């Protein structure tokens, strides 16, 4: 489907949960956030139906994200359901990697094509600080497991404060070079004040060629990460929510005072 600015929308990013097993400082407050009510979270059948609808309307690429997608119970079953929908040409996942060691093989067997794994530093203490308690070794095991399982290409998402030349990012780059991983740098953003920029090494943040639509875990189609607009299927119906999100896709991002990364999926 074409949006009002003649961009061909073929990429749907689905946040399968707003829950997470980490608490990255730039993404989630430590505690006390309002989580989505369990009853509001889309069931696998609903997600499957919405992906089929998306494919009819021109979606060919799907990415599962979150929160942390691997904490959603039965995630492997969801991967199988989506992978078996004809027309889904690319099925990827963005994960923090903590649980990937135990899931990589099953994800691959059930039809996941590839993963992006988040890693901002090589320093265990800094990693624990950034993520408020995460164990970097689990991420390394996860990366190894993803490579072993053939979830290729394994890409690393590295959040940088200012530039790809800062020391932590350079060390992550070295690790990637030595381990046959590709790296993309995401500038740390603030949805509320509208500070965002292009992802280096990826497609994110390029408004003029943006081909994305987002689906939140509670069923809202969102046209843009940097915009408050969202159309819930309960209010607008499946077709209506999808079509409204496309017809309301802004020319470019501005800011999003109500959105959070763990809800929209980055
Ligand atoms: N939990 C998974 C993970 O961390 O990879 C998937 C969801 S996370 C919200 C998706 C991506 O958004 C991650 O690569 C994360 O580093 C990035 N992210 C989160 N908050 C961000 C922020 N404030 N600025 C830039 N990137 C951010
Ligand atoms: Fe969780 Fe990913 Fe957000 Fe970190 S960036 S708190 S791992 S959702």
Concise summary:
With 266 residues, this protein is of the alpha/beta class. The protein has nine helices and nine strands. A nine-stranded mixed β-sheet has the order 6-5-4-3-2-1-7-8-9.
Describe this structure in words.
- The longest helix has 14 residues, at 136-149.
- The protein is 32% helix and 16% strand.
- The chain is α/β, with parallel strands linked by helices.
- Strand 2, helix 2 (75-83) and strand 3 (90-95) form a beta-alpha-beta unit.
- The protein is built from nine helices and nine strands.
- It binds S-adenosylmethionine (SAM) and iron/sulfur cluster.
- Iron/sulfur cluster (SF4) is lined by residues 20, 22-24, 27-28, 66-68, 96, 118, 261-262.
Key descriptive features of the protein:
single chain, 266 residues, alpha/beta, 9-stranded mixed β-sheet, 32% helix, globular, binds S-adenosylmethionine, binds iron/sulfur cluster
β-strand amount = 15-25%
Total of helices: 9
Number of strands: 9
First-residue to last-residue Cα separation: 22 Å
> Helicity, in percent?
25-40%
Biggest sheet details: 9 strands, mixed
Structural class: alpha/beta
Shape, principal axes of CA atoms? globular
Order of helices and strands: EHEHEHEHHEHEEEEHHH
Overall mean pLDDT: 94
Radius of gyration: 17 Å
Low-confidence stretches: none
Bound molecules: S-adenosylmethionine, iron/sulfur cluster
Strand order of the largest sheet: 6-5-4-3-2-1-7-8-9
Blueprint (SSEs and pairs):
Elements: E1 11-15, H1 44-56, E2 61-65, H2 75-83, E3 90-95, H3 100-109, E4 114-118, H4 124-131, H5 136-149, E5 155-160, H6 167-178, E6 182-187, E7 212-215, E8 220-222, E9 231-232, H7 233-236, H8 238-247, H9 261-264
Parallel strand pairs: 1-2, 1-7, 2-3, 3-4, 4-5, 5-6
Antiparallel strand pairs: 7-8, 8-9
This protein binds S-adenosylmethionine and iron/sulfur cluster (SF4).
């Amino acid at each position: 489907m074409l949006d009002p600015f003649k961009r061909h929308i073929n990429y749907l990013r689905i946040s399968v949960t707003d829950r997470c097993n980490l608490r990255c400082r730039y993404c989630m407050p430590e505690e006390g956030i309002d989580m989505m009510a369990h009853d509001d979270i889309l069931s696998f059948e609903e997600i499957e139906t919405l992906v089929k609808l998306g494919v009819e309307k021109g979606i060919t690429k799907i990415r599962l994200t979150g929160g942390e997608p691997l904490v959603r119970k039965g995630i492997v079953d969801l991967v199988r359901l989506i992978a078996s929908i004809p027309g889904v040409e690319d099925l990827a996942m963005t994960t923090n990697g903590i649980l990937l060691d135990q899931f990589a093989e099953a994800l691959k067997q059930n039809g996941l094509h590839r993963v992006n794994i988040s890693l901002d530093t090589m320093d265990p203490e800094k990693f624990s600080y950034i993520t408020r308690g995460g164990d970097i070794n689990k991420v390394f095991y996860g990366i190894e497991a993803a490579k072993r399982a053939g979830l290729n290409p394994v890409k690393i998402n590295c959040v940088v404060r200012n530039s790809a030349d800062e020391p932590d990012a350079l060390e992550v780059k070295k690790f990637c070079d030595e381990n046959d991983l590709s790296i993309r740098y995401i500038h740390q953003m603030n949805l509320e004040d509208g500070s965002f920029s292009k992802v280096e090494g990826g497609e994110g943040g390029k408004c003029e060629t943006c081909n994305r639509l987002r689906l939140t875990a509670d069923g809202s189609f969102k046209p843009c990460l940097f915009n408050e607009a969202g159309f819930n299927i309960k209010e607008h119906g499946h077709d209506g929510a999808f079509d409204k999100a496309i017809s309301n896709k802004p020319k470019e991002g501005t800011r999003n005072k109500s959105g959070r990364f763990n809800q929209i999926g980055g």
